[in-house]
Amino acid sequence: MNGSNGGLIRDVSAKEFLRSLTVLNGYQNVRDYCSVDYNISLDKRLVSARLSGKLNGRGLETYARSLRSDPRFDPSFAELVDIRQVTEIELQPEEALRLADELDPFSRESRRAFVVHSETQMYAAKMHQLLLSGRKPISIFSSLEEATHWICQ
Q1: Which of 18, 34, 106, 117 could anchor a disulfide with 84, C-beta 3.0 to 4.6 Å?
Q2: All domains of the chain, ordered by start, with CATH?
Q3: For residue range 2-56, what is the model confidence (pLDDT) as tens digits?
Q4: Pairing of strands 112-115, 138-141
Q5: What are phi and psi of 126, to 5 degrees?
Q6: pTM for the whole thing?
Q7: What string of DSSP letters covers 108-131?
């Protein structure tokens, strides 16, 4: 939809909304990025995200802030995160703790599912699971189908 000034106006009534974010981590290496594609489904009350590249605090912070600023997002939504395309993880324990304590946009009641492929990805998901202990279930899966079935039940 175009506004009178020729700019785009977001339709906040849309039931699905796909967004892509890319955070460059440096200028020396073109492969040094964190990419996040996510979809907010109002009908399913679900945020589905796919992360790729170099996972770091800056990329996760950008994702969290983007969700918080989106009028379609509700902190009680469930989250399904596919990190199988993450090639490297650069996250210090204190940074992970700050992200979990201060920036996590989801409520304590939100169900969370992570899809992993490698041991490094599993470690990152388990660290997040540990940091968010005491909340609703956070489960880790090796297939998107299993995670989708679990999160949608």
Answers
A1: 117
A2: 17-151 (3.30.750.24)
A3: 343 333 334 444 555 556 655 555 555 556 778 889 999 999 999 999 999 888 8
A4: parallel
A5: -65, -40
A6: 0.79
A7: TT--EEEE--SHHHHHHHHHHHHH
